UniProtKB/TrEMBL annotation:
UniProt-recorded name of the protein: Pentapeptide repeat-containing protein
Domain of life, source organism: Bacteria
Organism lineage string: Bacteria, Bacillati, Actinomycetota, Actinomycetes, Kitasatosporales
InterPro entries xref list: 5peptide_repeat, PA_immunity-related
Record-linked Gene3D superfamilies: E3 ubiquitin-protein ligase SopA (2.160.20.80)
UniProt xrefs under Pfam families: Pentapeptide_4
The species this protein was found in: Streptomyces spectabilis
């Protein structure tokens, strides 16, 4: 757990920076189960209580869109960009996210258990009571985010980094770690699962801050 330089997060992109920006058409259809949306711009508005399970989003952009309730199980998000998008009380279990970027967004009360995230970057997003149990995260970066009451129990974290991110009451019970870098996190509020973080990278200062919790986890009795 020696201190090492943490991985820098890629800079957030604007909508115009996307390589497929010139191909985007404004969304003017119905969002329904097993739908197929390619090169679509979802600009504003919201979706309440819909069943969008199995839907595919390919090279799509979301700008200030609100999702409230609803089920999108097994939906696929490939090369998707989202800005100021809100997901509240949404079921996103077993979804797949590949080459995606989200900025200034909110995920609250969201089910993401069993999901698969690969090459995904979150910039300045707020996660509140998000269930990521049993998820697989590979090359995922949480940059300058807030993770509060997030549950990673049983998840696989490979190449995951948290630069500038604040963790509050986050659970890591029984996670599998491969190149997880916590050294750049702004705060490490870990509720449980410290023993499962073997192989993760933290800073020397974080080691000192975690020492009391580590002692409890290891059953050490500390006497002055």
């Amino acid at each position: 757990m020696a201190a090492t330089p943490h991985r820098a997060a890629p800079a957030p992109r604007d909508l115009a920076d996307l390589p497929y920006a010139h191909r985007l058409d404004v969304f003017a259809e119905e969002l329904e189960r097993d739908g197929d949306h390619e090169s679509v711009h979802f600009d504003g508005g919201g979706f309440v209580g819909l069943d969008g399970g199995g839907t595919v989003f390919l090279e799509c952009a979301f700008s200030a869109v609100a999702f409230e309730g609803g089920r999108y199980r097994r939906a696929r998000f490939n090369d998707v960009w989202a800005h100021q998008t809100r997901w509240v009380g949404v079921d996103l279990a077993e979804t797949q996210w590949t080459d995606c970027e989200a900025g200034a967004g909110l995920l609250a009360g969201v089910e993401l258990h069993g999901s698969r995230l690969r090459r995904v970057v979150f910039h300045q997003c707020k996660f509140d009571s998000v269930n990521l149990r049993g998820a697989e995260l590979r090359d995922v970066t949480f940059a300058d985010c807030l993770l509060r009451d997030v549950d990673f129990s049983g998840a696989r974290l490979a190449g995951v980094a948290f630069p500038g991110t604040t963790l509050e009451r986050v659970r890591f019970d029984n996670v599998t770690v491969d190149r997880a870098d916590l050294s750049g996190a702004a705060a490490l509020g870990i509720a449980s699962g410290l023993d499962a973080l073997r192989g993760a990278t933290i800073s020397g200062l974080q080691l000192v801050e975690l020492a009391p919790a580590l002692a409890v986890t290891l059953g050490l009795e500390v006497k002055d």
